């Protein structure tokens, strides 16, 4: 699909396509043309031109999301292009904006907003090399430290009267922790001031997490993701909420096993109550993810203190019981849920009517529904269709890991064609593609042991159903090992090394204990 370009944009492309000419001519360019030239340069991956445009930026703000988003001159949104050439040129141009004494423009820039950049799976840039959130965190921190040391050396004292707030979504792991900490510690004395809007941490000790969370200014934080290899348990979460205030927090993701009610004492019950009350003080909180915790019978205690309704809730694999589902279906959150993940719960067996009640309450706003490994079988498909029919705003439906036959999937796909704005479907490998006697949920060792040729035939038939209904806009796939996660993809080498190290340490402890017993 070709996106229309205005004559202005075509002219801008022609201007920046000759990098040498464009760089020499920038001094004669009107200020209001800089945004147009920036987007044209980004589209053509003209790194040198991007660098010089940013180095000489004549406006008060520089907002990546707006600059790369849909404009009257060129409707295509380029904010999902995390092209390494373009982004590195952009950030080094920002550093040189501070250092450049010969720029003909008065330095007006006060705010740089990098939060509009979207990390996606498929990249269209020619260089095919991306700069993800972790790498952007790394490079900005490095440039801030460079500027600080240049200031200490007093190269150009006048340049350091500049003060620019750089809004960014930080991603910190063990590997870039020290660099980010140093940049945050120097924030007061650095012309580029890191302002963290969203913070994701993985593979960090609790001590390091608690230290850095105080450095990033929690009072401005809108999104907090504590994931995977941060061993945060309930007592640490209570400590976090008691010691730090998050007045603007809108989205909270907690690591697996933060809660485990199976080993609760009276003290733990009180701790859970305190955590619920603290979350109730977060008046902006609208998104909550607590997957792989054990919350049986405690959802009400945790969520009832919330004063604003949740728009996104992920309680996948949380061992919810009927009381939890009844609370959710009858709560004021139900009418506002735009994204819901109930994966890992045997919905047809445990609480079918309560689930459909919840679905009917959120049907007018629901955009994303995930029901992976929920034991949905062929006999449940008609009821599922009935429950999903009012969900006319549904854009995404994921139901991998359910024991459905190819015939049932065809029936379901025929219905899914009727959902007007559905864009993404993740469906399971049909049960009849696996050997007879396979048990669900399928373990990792058996996951790939299915008839691949038969699966391909069924997948073609399902896509044909979409095609015949003129729904080529719907993407249907079977990601066996979960949906694409840009953050995990970017740091998988570090996380893999950490897991191997942890496994080795556990093995050594076991061997030592075994030898002592012997």
UniProtKB/TrEMBL annotation:
InterPro entries recorded: LRR_dom_sf (IPR032675), LRRC14/PRAME (IPR050694)
Keywords, sorted A to Z: Leucine-rich repeat, Repeat
GO CC terms in record: cytoplasm
Top-level taxon of the source organism: Eukaryota
KW Plastid (keyword) present: no
Family: Belongs to the PRAME family. LRRC14 subfamily.
Protein name (Swiss-Prot/TrEMBL): Leucine-rich repeat-containing protein 14B
Organism name: Nicator chloris
């Amino acid at each position: 699909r070709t996106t229309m370009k205005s004559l202005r944009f075509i002219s801008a492309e022609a201007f920046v396509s000759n990098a040498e000419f464009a760089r020499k001519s920038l001094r004669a360019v009107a200020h209001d043309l800089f945004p147009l030239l920036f987007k044209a340069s980004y589209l053509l991956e003209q790194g040198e031109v991007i660098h010089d445009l940013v180095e000489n930026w004549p406006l008060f703000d520089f907002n990546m999301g707006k600059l790369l988003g849909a404009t009257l001159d060129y409707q295509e949104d380029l904010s999902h292009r995390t092209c390494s050439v373009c982004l590195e040129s952009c950030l080094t141009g920002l550093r040189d904006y501070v250092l450049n004494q010969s720029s003909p423009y008065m330095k007006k820039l006060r705010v740089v907003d990098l939060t509009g950049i979207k990390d996606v799976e498929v990249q269209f840039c020619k260089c095919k090399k991306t700069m993800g959130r972790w790498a952007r965190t790394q490079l900005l921190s490095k440039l801030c430290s460079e500027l600080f040391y240049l200031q200490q050396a007093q190269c150009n004292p006048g340049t350091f009267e500049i003060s620019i707030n750089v809004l960014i979504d930080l991603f910190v792991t063990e590997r870039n922790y020290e660099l980010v900490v140093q940049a945050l510690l120097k924030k007061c004395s650095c012309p580029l001031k890191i302002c963290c809007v969203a913070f994701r941490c993985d593979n960090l000790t609790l001590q390091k997490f608690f230290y850095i969370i105080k450095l990033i200014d929690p009072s401005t934080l809108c999104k907090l993701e504590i994931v995977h290899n941060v061993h945060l348990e309930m007592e640490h979460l209570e400590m976090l909420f008691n010691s730090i205030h998050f007045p603007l927090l809108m989205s909270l993701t907690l690591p697996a096993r933060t809660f485990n009610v199976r080993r609760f004492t009276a003290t733990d019950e009180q701790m859970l109550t305190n955590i619920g009350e603290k979350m109730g003080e977060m008046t902006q909180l609208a998104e909550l993810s607590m997957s792989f915790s054990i919350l049986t019978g405690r959802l009400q205690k945790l969520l009832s203190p919330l004063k604003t309704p949740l728009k996104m809730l992920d309680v996948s694999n949380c061992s919810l019981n009927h009381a939890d589902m009844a609370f959710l279906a009858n709560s004021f959150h139900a009418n506002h849920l735009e994204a819901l993940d109930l994966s890992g719960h045997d919905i047809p067996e445990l609480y079918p009517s309560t689930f459909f009640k919840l679905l009917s309450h959120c049907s007018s706003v629901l955009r994303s529904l995930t029901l992976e490994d929920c034991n949905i079988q062929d006999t449940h498909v008609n009821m599922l269709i009935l429950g999903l029919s009012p969900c006319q705003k549904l854009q995404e439906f994921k139901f991998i890991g359910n024991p459905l036959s190819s015939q049932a999937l065809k029936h379901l796909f025929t219905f899914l064609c009727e959902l007007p704005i559905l864009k993404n479907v993740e469906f399971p490998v049909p049960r009849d593609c696996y050997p007879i006697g396979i048990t669900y949920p399928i373990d990792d060792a058996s996951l790939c042991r299915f008839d691949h040729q038969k699966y391909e035939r069924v997948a073609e038939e399902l896509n044909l159903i979409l095609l015949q209904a003129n729904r080529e806009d719907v993407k249907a796939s079977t990601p066996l090992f979960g949906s694409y996660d840009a953050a995990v993809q970017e740091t998988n080498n570090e996380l893999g090394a950490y897991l191997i190290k942890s496994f080795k340490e556990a093995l050594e402890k076991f061997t030592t204990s075994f030898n002592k017993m012997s």
